[in-house]
């Protein structure tokens, strides 16, 4: 038997490892099972190049829980280790990592330290009072050895018995980690980190009594807890629509079928595979971030993909697998990492290319899914300038009749919607039902009104208007139809200046909570007699105030700005102007104004009550 001291300067580093290394103790399972997978892959490789002789046998990893003896054992049938290798890898190499770790982080804030320094194997001491390794190398004539260590720098190395090539890591679970002697806890942790590892993993609880099969029933074979060949590791050409959808359900049970997916496969200048899904979203408040899972060679790492995936794509679901992402380093390091930046840009480009492809090849389907899809696209256009450029080809707008337009198509369909500055005016409606009267009038002039109904749209309009130099957005009720496109040509009014003045004064009566401006214009005789509009800029400020933010309180206090446009050419004003009963005349004018306000949703409270009783009075006359 060999006894010795692990070569490390510090008297006892284990308390430090326990405290500092990983904030999540369950990570020891990830580390140990990953080592078992590595050892298994190595034997496969060695066998394929003829360096390992003979039959490899079944390659599997077994996790065995024995709560009575307080042990958890991870066994593999991989390369194993010779005595020299145990000494080299467990006593020296692993500890050089430990020393480096201590050097670097001496005296630092412990919360910042989640490092990875080749301490994988030693993470087992976070949960164990004693760890034994029984291993037998694949090399011909190698004898099995047992290495044991109780967490002090002392270890023992003795001859052992092991029938087959491979390694058992036997953890004697410590008192404070006794959670890991619970089968559910172990299974849950395996499920979290090992669900897609490439070697079959079996879990066994030795204290669980397995019922003997009844007469005529076959013994139920235990099943591996993992899917060794998840969809993202396969070639897109080998996968059907169902395969992608099934894999989605494997990741997110009980979720609705996704809209589209993108299979990522990059090998230069970095390695990355994965599948990103566009989920179906019915309402913007349903959006859930942190649904993308990050893997490294099929080992689960985290579902916090911030910095790796562009912000707007955090709305997507799926997996990304890359051995090139520094995994256990701190957030600030990740942000500055050149690989991470490249990956981020690449994902954006891939997603844009895919959307472009779907749009060109399956436009009808794309349009049908635009309600959900549009949310990602608009969010992306707002937050990422590169994406904004690319999105020009597939960003679409739906008009109030259900027809879709790209920006270019909108321009060619709306030649009449160029204003005096040569900008294309995109007319939009935030509520086609409520704004129906305005839409009808705009359509009558041949204008195309598109729907911009969600909260995202409000922010979207504000953002892209600043970036698209040749477009402005105007809400369809921002002005009377004749003035929506500012062309500076005025129509003739049939009223004399005096008559127009009288009419203006009649309409200029204060209204609670509203700031009213009146203008008399000569519009076409069949246009409505009075139209209430809200100036675009002021209305947007009010909308923003409603959502909150810096100037919210200020704008919220401002009275609503309303412009009443009186159509001097409407026949009703002939009869009103010739009416000799002052009180009746005033009531009629007031009612016309109120009707216009009503259509803008601006007639409320006392004003509304008065309107109703006045209407009844007029009808009684
Ligand atoms: N199950 C095993 N079978 C064979 N060799 C093993 C096994 N576990 C560990 N080893 C050997 O011990 C070495 C140290 O393992 P450790 O987990 O500490 O670091 P690592 O795997 O090299 O790096 P990482 O920090 O990424 O885990 C490994 O490189 C490997 O050679």
TrEMBL record:
SUPFAM superfamilies for the chain: ATPase domain of HSP90 chaperone/DNA topoisomerase II/histidine kinase, HSP90 C-terminal domain, Ribosomal protein S5 domain 2-like
One Pfam assignment: HATPase_c_3
Database matches in InterPro entries: HATPase_C_sf, HSP90_C, Hsp90_fam, Hsp90_N, Ribosomal_Su5_D2-typ_SF
Keywords (A to Z) from UniProt: ATP-binding, Chaperone, Nucleotide-binding
Top-rank taxon: Bacteria
Record keyword ATP-binding present: yes
PANTHER family: HEAT SHOCK PROTEIN 90 FAMILY MEMBER
Family according to the record: Belongs to the heat shock protein 90 family.
Descriptive protein name: Molecular chaperone HtpG
The species this protein was found in: Ferruginibacter yonginensis
Gene: htpG
């Amino acid at each position: 038997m060999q006894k010795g001291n692990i070569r490390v300067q510090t008297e006892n580093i284990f308390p430090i490892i326990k405290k500092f290394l990983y904030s999540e103790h369950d990570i020891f399972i990830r580390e140990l099972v990953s080592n078992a997978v590595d050892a298994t892959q190595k034997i496969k490789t060695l066998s394929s190049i003829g360096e390992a002789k003979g039959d490899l046998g079944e390659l599997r990893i077994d996790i065995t829980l024995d709560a009575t003896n307080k042990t958890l054992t991870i066994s593999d049938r991989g390369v194993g280790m010779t005595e020299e290798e145990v000494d080299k890898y467990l006593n020296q190499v692993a500890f050089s990592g430990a020393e480096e770790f201590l050097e670097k982080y001496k005296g630092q804030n412990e919360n910042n330290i989640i490092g990875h320094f080749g301490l994988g194997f030693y993470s087992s001491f976070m949960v164990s009072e004693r760890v034994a390794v029984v291993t037998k190398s694949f090399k011909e004539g190698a004898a099995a050895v047992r290495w044991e260590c109780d967490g002090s720098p002392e270890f023992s190395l003795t001859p052992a018995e092991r029938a087959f090539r491979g390694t058992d890591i036997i953890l004697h679970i410590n008192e404070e980690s006794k959670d890991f002697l619970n089968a559910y806890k172990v299974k849950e942790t395996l499920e979290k980190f090992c669900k897609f590892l490439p070697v079959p993993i079996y879990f066994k609880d030795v204290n669980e009594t397995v019922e003997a099969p009844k007469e005529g029933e076959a013994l139920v074979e235990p099943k591996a807890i993992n899917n060794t060949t998840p969809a993202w590791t396969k070639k897109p050409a080998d996968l059907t629509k169902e395969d992608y959808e099934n894999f989605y359900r494997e990741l997110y049970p009980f979720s609705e079928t996704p809209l589209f997916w993108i299979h990522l496969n990059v090998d230069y200048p970095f390695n990355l595979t994965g599948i990103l899904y566009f989920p179906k979203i019915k309402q913007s408040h349903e959006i859930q971030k942190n649904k993308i899972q990050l893997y490294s060679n099929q080992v689960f790492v985290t579902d916090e993909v911030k910095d790796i995936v562009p912000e707007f794509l955090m709305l997507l679901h799926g997996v990304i697998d890359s051995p090139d992402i520094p995994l256990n380093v701190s957030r600030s390091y990740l942000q500055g990492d050149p690989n991470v930046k490249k990956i981020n840009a690449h994902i954006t480009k891939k997603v844009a290319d895919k959307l472009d492809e779907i749009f060109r090849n399956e436009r009808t389907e794309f349009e049908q899914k635009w309600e959900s899809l549009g949310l990602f696209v608009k969010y992306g256009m707002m937050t990422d300038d590169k994406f904004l450029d690319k999105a020009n080809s597939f960003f679409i707008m739906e008009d109030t009749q259900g027809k879709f337009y790209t920006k270019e198509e909108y321009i060619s369909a709306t030649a009449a919607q160029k204003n005096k500055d040569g900008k294309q005016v995109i007319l939009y409606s935030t509520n086609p039902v409520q704004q129906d009267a305005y839409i009808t009038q705009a359509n009558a002039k041949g204008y195309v009104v598109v729907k911009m109904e969600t909260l995202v749209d409000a922010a979207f309009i504000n953002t892209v208007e600043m970036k698209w130099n040749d477009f402005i957005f105007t809400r369809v009720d921002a002005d009377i139809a004749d003035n929506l496109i500012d062309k500076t040509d005025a129509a003739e009014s049939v009223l004399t200046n005096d008559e127009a003045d009288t009419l203006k004064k009649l309409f200029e009566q204060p209204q609670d909570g509203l700031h009213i401006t009146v203008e008399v214009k000569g519009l076409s005789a069949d246009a409505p007699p009075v139209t209430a509009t809200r100036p675009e800029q002021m209305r947007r400020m009010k909308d923003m105030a409603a959502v909150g933010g810096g100037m919210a309180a200020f704008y919220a206090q401002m009275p609503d700005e309303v412009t009443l446009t009186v159509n001097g050419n409407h026949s009703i004003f002939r009869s009103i102007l010739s009416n000799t009963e002052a009180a009746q005349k005033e009531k009629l004018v007031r009612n016309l104004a109120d009707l216009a306000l009503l259509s803008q949703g601006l007639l409320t409270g006392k004003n509304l009550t008065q309107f109703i009783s006045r209407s009844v009075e007029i009808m009684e006359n």
